[in-house]
Amino acid sequence: MSSTPSALPSAAGARREIARLLRWNHRRSILLGVFGLLALLPIVYPSPYTIATVLFYIPWYLAMAQSWNISGGYSGQLSFGHWGLLGVGAYTSAILAVTYGWNLLAAMAMAAVVTFLLGLLIGFIGAALRGPYFTIATLASAALMQLILLNWKSLTLGSLGFPIFFIIVPPTDLYYGALALGAVATAMVYLISRSRIGLAFQAIRENEDVATATGIYARGYKALAFGLSASIMGPVGGLYAFASHYIDPTSAFNLLYNLQIILMVVVGGRGKVLGPLVAAVLFAWVFEVALTSFNVYNYLLTGVVIFVAVLLIPRGIFGFRGMPKLLQF
Fold first, then answer.
1. What is the C-alpha separation between 35 and 2, in angstroms, rounded?
2. Residue 151 lies in a domain
């Protein structure tokens, strides 16, 4: 059978699809309730130190987890390259803001464009690879990004690091910026889960050969999934840079973040909306405590927890049979 892209839906069909996506339901109320509670945290814990060192990382990890969920959860592209996209986003935002004097929001928006284009490129080139081969390719691409920025000393200052000391963003603004980004990422996942694009992603994840035989352009959809996923990592990296006031190729490019967001999605449930959100909220503060108490063993602990989670809860915390169907999304 033909493997060409499916025909585009008619205008009337597109209008019906948009109306269906915008129709209100109880699941959206649950999501709004969760984000409403998260929005109250800086009010309940107003200490700038608490907000900067603990609370900020809850929506920050949430945005990254939902980003990975688009590619790893829906289209089945198990990426170990998101830490590279995080680093590119951090450097893009910092260089535009510090060196060229861009507005912080504009710098992070451009970072989203840069990482989206990088994601499309990686997704399209890597679409021919499957399983562990794709995973290794994304890992190599992230290492290449790190190497390029490390050696581009005229732009990034190389191993000396890139200072952002004179750009001061209040911790509350950083928190709500991360929360807004987490909300955008969650909305993207929710809309994908209820759209034809999401069905195509899931068909490719379950059996790419069968999906291709039915007329789904697998390579294009995989590139789109990775591009959408990567677009979130750009501004996430920007928030990290402005919160840290200093970045270097070691801190901005950190494989541990990639392992942690994989853990959140695995525990929450791959291809789910609510699960990774709840897992991110639960794990974010745990990771920050572990960073100060068990820094040397962070990689080991994260790897062991991922292994145990895959064995014991392969469908995630909301995948148990007794769980109400309202929460299984």
1. 44
2. yes
Q: Is 85 exposed, middle or buried (0-12, 13-18, 19+ CB in 10 A)?
A: buried
Domain membership flag for residue 104: yes
Residue 166, CA distances (Å) to 49, 56, 109, 110, 245 in order: 19, 20, 21, 21, 8
Count of domains for the chain: 1
Q: What is the pLDDT of residues 308-324, one digit of tens each?
A: 777 777 777 776 666 66
Contacts of 248-252 with C-beta under 8 Å, sequence gap 24+, read 248/159, 248/160, 248/161, 248/162, 249/87, 249/146, 249/149, 249/150, 249/156, 249/158, 249/159, 251/161, 252/86, 252/87, 252/90, 252/91
- 15 within some domain: no
In the numeric block, which tokens belong to residue 328? 């299984």
Burial 278-307 (b: 16+ CB within 10 A, else e): bbbbebbeebbebeeeeeeebeebbeebbe
d(CA 131, CA 66): 20
Beta bridge partners of 247: 162
Domain span at residue 242 reads 25-327
pLDDT tens per residue across span 143-176? 999 999 999 999 999 989 899 988 889 999 999 9
Beta bridge partner(s), residue 162: 247
Residue keyed to tokens 């990592």 = 233
Q: Is residue 5 part of a domain?
A: no
Model confidence, pTM: 0.86
Angstrom distance (rounded) from CA 35 to CA 184: 11
Overall residue count recorded for the chain in this entry: 329
The enclosing domain of 228 has a CATH number of 1.10.3470
Question: Which residues partner with 246 through β-bridges?
Answer: 163
